Amino acid sequence: MRMNTFRKEFIKIGGKVIRHARQITLCISSAYARKKEFAGLMYNIQNE
């Protein structure tokens, strides 16, 4: 995967960030094609 493709498909994501006292939630459209891959990427980042 080229960096431009990565940037286009994973970084430029339209969504809504909801912030509460102890939790931050990212709401992504249900039509987003790479939702599972994005969730796996975020899981790996959090567990490093």
Largest sheet: 2 strands, antiparallel
Give the CA-CA distance, first to last residue.
22 Å
Count of helical regions: 2
In terms of quaternary structure, the protein is single chain
Query: How many β strands by DSSP?
Result: 2
**Radius of gyration from the alpha-carbon trace, in angstroms:** 12 Å
Reading side by side through the largest sheet, how are the strands ordered? 1-2
Flag low-confidence runs. none
> Structural class of the secondary elements?
alpha+beta
* Overall shape: globular
Helix content: 40-55%
Succession of helices and strands? HEEH
Strand content: 15-25%
User: How many structural domains are formed by the residues?
Assistant: 1
Mean pLDDT: 80
Descriptive terms for the model:
single chain, 48 residues, alpha+beta, two-stranded antiparallel sheet, 2 helices
Structure commentary:
The protein is an alpha+beta fold and 48 residues long. Helices cover 44% and strands 21% of the residues. It has one domain. It contains 2 helices and 2 strands. It has a two-stranded antiparallel ribbon with strand order 1-2. The longest helix has 12 residues. 0% of the residues are buried.
